[in-house]
Amino acid sequence: MRLPDPHERGFAFTAAGTAARVNGALTSELYEALRAQGPCGFAEDAIKDTLTFVPFRDLPPWFKWWKVRSAVRDKIEGWWLRSEDTVVDAWRALRGNR
Questions:
Q1: Which residues of 43-62 are buried (b: 16+ CB within 10 A; e: fewer)?
Q2: By the 8 A CB rule, do 56 and 69 touch?
Q3: Looking at the 3D structure of the chain, how many domains does it have?
Q4: Is 10 within a domain?
């Protein structure tokens, strides 16, 4: 995961995500590497795979926090999008453009 070539580094993070899918757990070194990379960039999909396939009780504290944060953010974003659709529909109904 420290390779200079970005494509090769991407493969390493893909392998970490696959390990999370297959085993339902990662080593402490892989958790630290994902945390060091952060949720953006190469590690984004590997972190999402980890949060999806590793049981919550087995996650390190940083990942638990990230899972709760992302769940809350997704819920709020869903509410926002639904309310936006409602406002647009109401506006169109007022203007008679259904």
A1: beebbebbbebbeeeebbee
A2: no
A3: 1
A4: yes
Question: Is 15 part of any domain?
Answer: yes
Q: Specify if 1 maps to a domain.
A: no
Domain extent for 69? 6-95
CA distances from 91 to 77, 79, 87, 94 (A): 21, 18, 6, 5
pTM for the model: 0.69
pLDDT digits (tens, 9 = 90+) for 46-57: 888 898 899 999
Cα dist from 67 to 4, 12, 19, 38, 94, whole Å? 29, 22, 18, 13, 41
pLDDT tens track for 20-75: 999 999 999 999 988 888 877 788 888 888 988 999 999 999 999 989 998 999 99
